[in-house]
Amino acid sequence: MNILLIYPKIPDTFWSFSFALSFIGKKAAFPPLGLLTVASLLPDQWPKRLVDLNVEKLSDKDLLWADMAFISGMAIQRKSATQIIARCKALNLKIVAGGPLFTSQPDEFKNVDHLVLDEAELTLPAFLKDWQNGQAKKVYRASGFCDLSDTPPPSWNLLNTKQYASMNIQFSRGCPFNCEFCNVTALFGHRSRIKTPQQIIAELDWIYSSGWRSSIFFVDDNFIGNKRYLKKYLLPALIEWRKNKKGCVFFTEASINLADDPELWI
Q1: DSSP label at residue 152
Q2: Which of 70, 183, 188, 194 is most exposed by smallest CB count within 10 Å?
Q3: Residue 266 — very low, low, confident or very high, per pLDDT cuts 50/70/90?
Q4: What CATH number corresponds to the domain at position 231?
């Protein structure tokens, strides 16, 4: 089963960083971390390819190679995702879609063969089981949230890291706040669910061993969602990992109450 993982184009907006990237000779800010994680949840014996439309073109040859296309993206990528779906349908290629765009608006994508929504750690195994039994359904939803300690590392081997301005990594999902401008809690809940320091260090080791020495973005929507765990376990592990390392500056997103905790200023 040949699997083509396709990441739609981000239009020229704040999220694309298109004009800034031209100054540093990179094609995209970050790799598609969600799709790389989905790749790791698929059977090892299935050949896989990644096409990120932000760094390369999607050819008919790519589509004809595949037995199934997996598409994921955010709301801002809707136009490109719709175009990809049309191209897949024209070549009779089965489409599996998930991620924030499709989870938030599943009824808008009736021509997608299988909508594997919410968190893939919960819904993708059910789809794969049904697929292998010839009983795959149209829609798969989850009733809760996954345990990130069971999430595999992303399939970094599918990536050409030289195309990107920064690598990325995820420590947590969810946020304790309920800001009106943000849909994070609707997608991932109010409780900050976390990976173990061992998982994070293993992912960092792969990135570093690949030769990467530039910045690494922690993509958490609120890196300090669980400050106690962060300070007691992850930050000490990151400090230890950085010893004798070259480059690899970390950056992230955090709520403003970071300023209320002097221990996090250092």
Answers
A1: P
A2: 183
A3: low
A4: 3.30.750.210
